[in-house]
Specification:
The structure is a single chain. This protein is mostly beta strands. The chain has 1 helix and 11 strands. Strands 2, 4, 5, 6, 9, 10 and 11 form a 7-stranded mixed sheet that branches. A 4-stranded antiparallel sheet has the order 1-3-8-7, with no helix packed on it. Strand 5 and strand 6 form a beta hairpin. The longest helix is centred in the last third of the chain and has 4 residues. The radius of gyration is 13 Å and the shape is globular. The chain starts with a strand and ends with a strand. The relative contact order is 0.31. The mean pLDDT is 94.
Length: 128
């Protein structure tokens, strides 16, 4: 069992930045692929970013490429999502998730069904 807790959400003006953190409860965090997803009101859950268990493979959703950066610190059991140049359309609840897979393919890491553990989510609101 892995428990995840997100933090760092909030209200920011368009063009601003936020850094989300997701702390994992388990020491074997290093063996899990980690992902960030988001869901806006009335919309389906959307893939944002993922990082493989090794940290060597990273993917981003098309809407955030070039603006968001995912990273992980195994010593702290934490994954981060640095969000720059935020837009109003980035407004959503952001969830981190953990998948017990060593797969590297985007088709796996971007698939929310591959993730067994989810955090409670953190709200990000970008004002225009």
């Amino acid at each position: 069992q892995v428990q995840l807790g997100e933090s760092g959400g909030g209200l920011v003006q368009a063009g601003g930045s936020l850094r989300l953190s997701c702390a994992a409860s388990r020491r074997t965090f290093g063996t899990y692929a980690m992902g960030w997803f988001r869901q806006a009101p009335g919309k389906e859950r959307e893939f944002v970013a993922a990082i493989s268990w090794s940290g060597r493979t990273i993917y981003y959703g098309d809407s955030v490429k070039g603006r968001f950066t995912i990273s992980r610190d195994k010593a702290k059991n934490t994954v981060y999502l640095q969000m720059n140049s935020l837009k109003p359309e980035d407004t959503a609840i952001y969830y981190c998730a953990a998948a017990g897979t060593t797969a590297q393919a985007m088709g796996v890491l971007a698939d929310s069904d591959e993730y067994a553990y989810w955090g409670q989510g953190t709200q990000v609101t970008v004002s225009s």
